[in-house]
Give the backbone structure.
Amino acid sequence: MGLIARESWRNRCIVIGEDLGTVPAGLRERLADNGLLGMRILWFERDYARPEAPFRQPGAWSRASVAMTSTHDLPTVEGWWTGHDLHWQARLGLLPIGMNETEARARRMADRRALVDAFAQHQHQHTVPDAGADAAQRIATLQTALERARTATPAQADTLLAATASDFATAAIAYAAAAPVPLAIAPMEDLLGLLEQPNLPSTVDTHPNWRRRLPAPAAGLLASPAVRARLAALARSRAQATPDASPP
């Protein structure tokens, strides 16, 4: 830990400790004690001690961490919303043991409702200046799509979700960025609204891991109106979450 701290100071860089999945007891506490930020991912920030495991509000996320919508090993925000990752898992036999694609889709629909409910709760309690009306309309659009999907055929539900994926991406980025942590990260795939994740664990040649090109040259990646809107939403959330940008 001392060596990591020294090199971080010498190179003026932030060190992030990947504490996802199964980790040794006490690791997160030791990282925090030494000033290393852990990783908090939107999909995993749920209160499993409560019925139906609601998503935690950003204010309840660990302050000794980096807030992220996703990682390279997990679904992108639009991929998660549309269930694109479930199609890959079903195709490659990677669904949870004992679960078929229909059951996985049903569970994901419940998760979507839970997350949009969390968005709505946060919006009600923490209206961000200069974004209140837009954010509220975005969440209302997502709620309407989910309500219509209740009685839709699977194909119709897929269409509804695809049509609202961009709104979901912006809402998800703004939500994660509202966590009162020293640093928030939005993966490039989420800013660009891509469906495909860079890497799919447990695969070698059945998924094009680390081989997909981004849709534009590096100089123009952030130029589209949709990307700029997501960056603006992220910046507004960060200004409200940590106005002085100082660590806790």
User: Anything to note?
Assistant: Residues 243-248 have pLDDT under 50 and may be disordered. The longest strand covers residues 38-41.
